[in-house]
Write a structure and sequence with these properties.
By secondary structure, the protein is of the alpha+beta class. It has two helices and 13 strands.
Length: about 240
């Protein structure tokens, strides 16, 4: 009887050990899945309701929404617009279409202050341009996709005026990348020696708030030309 009892006790210990061994991976996997789910950040759509004019509470009626686009500047006078929310580290996706000979831009970390009269006084710009017809296309660092007046694209990937372009802007702890039509065309670190040299040689030295803000608005520019935007969305990093 004593031998049988020992055998049964040993078998019970084995069953408990194997049961615990089988449960542990499942618990670990669940914890990993939970952690992965908790770190996922949803995309935020940037339709017309997400925007207002710079230093205003509303948006001009010259910025209109449509069935095939999110926003369209119908004529000069709509004014620059900014997101109602502010962002620090983010990934922005946006499609743009510029009219013939047109000019516009996408800005980030824009702030509003009495000493600042325009979005480009504080926010770096990813240039939107008709490279074939607009006079700015003759200036290095003023072409589509450029870090405007600071750094030119590594290669030209822009589509002609009247065609949609797919752009992406990633900003993470001051590390910035411009993507245009599936290719990374500009990359820089805000505040680096290279950035400071580019700033010193740019038109922005008269505005000491340029590029130094860690949090700010996304902005779209009224440069007096018709421009369309669609598929605009952002997620925080």
């Amino acid at each position: 009887m004593k031998k049988v009892a020992n055998i049964l006790f040993t078998a019970s210990l084995c069953m408990i050990f194997f049961a615990c061994s089988e449960q542990k991976p499942a618990e670990t996997a669940t914890a990993e899945e939970t952690q992965e789910q908790s770190t996922e950040v949803a995309w935020e759509s940037l339709g017309k309701d997400a925007w207002r004019n710079f230093k205003a509470d509303t948006i001009s009626p010259l910025w209109v929404a449509g069935d095939t686009f999110d926003l369209h500047l119908t004529e000069k006078g709509g004014g620059d617009i900014i997101t109602k929310n502010k962002y620090e580290n983010f990934e922005l996706e946006i499609d743009w279409l510029i009219s013939e000979g047109g000019n516009s831009g996408v800005f980030f970390r824009v702030i509003e202050a009495d000493t600042l009269g325009a979005v480009y006084h504080s926010g770096p710009e990813m240039q939107v341009l008709d490279n074939e017809r607009h006079p700015d296309a003759k200036i290095v660092m003023h072409r589509a996709g450029d870090n405007y007046d600071m750094q030119s694209v590594s290669e030209e990937t822009v589509n002609p005026a009247g065609q949609w372009n797919t752009a992406k802007l990633i900003v993470n702890n001051g590390q910035v990348a411009h993507w245009l039509n599936g290719k990374k065309v500009v990359e820089y670190q805000i505040g680096s020696p290279e950035w400071q040299e580019q700033y010193n040689n740019s038109k922005f030295t008269k505005w000491p708030n340029y590029g130094i803000n860690e949090v700010g608005h996304i902005a779209l520019q009224d440069h007096g030309d018709k421009v369309w935007f669609r598929n605009m969305r952002i997620r925080k990093l």
